[in-house]
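Lab channel / #folding
Pinned by the channel admin:
"Please post every new chain as: sequence first, then the structure tokens as a reply. Keep commentary short and put observations after the output so the thread stays searchable."

First post following the new format, from NK:
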Amino acid sequence: MTEQTHEASQVITPFDWMGGEPAVQALVDRFYDLMDLETGYAELRATHGPDLDRARQRLFWFLCGWLGGPSYFVENVGHPMLRARHLPFAIGVTERDQWVACMDQAMKDTGLPEPLQDILRPAFFQTADWMRNKDLETGD
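Reply from TO:
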């Protein structure tokens, strides 16, 4: 094994750093539990319909791959096409901000290492902001 190959095998993904599938599942479960429990996430919760089971499964699959683990989403659903998949839902600044706040709270509640939270927070914000599809002209 060359030194470069050895170094590449030493790379730890966010998926590994946080603890793999059990940690991703705990994060997703806490995220959706908070969305259901906290009134501060009411607009975000309203975009999801009455049952969160499908959303939980898909976010788990997506995050596993996005964080550097197994590509379950691609295997089960196909290319993520996040923006296209979210177009049927009215997502504005309020929903974006609630999604980010809910995920931030879920990361804290599930004990993700703070340095990892610091890396994921702006990536989650950027992704959530890309999903906005209403109030784009006014910035609201």
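NK: The chain has one domain: 13-130.
TO: also worth noting, The mean pLDDT is 91.
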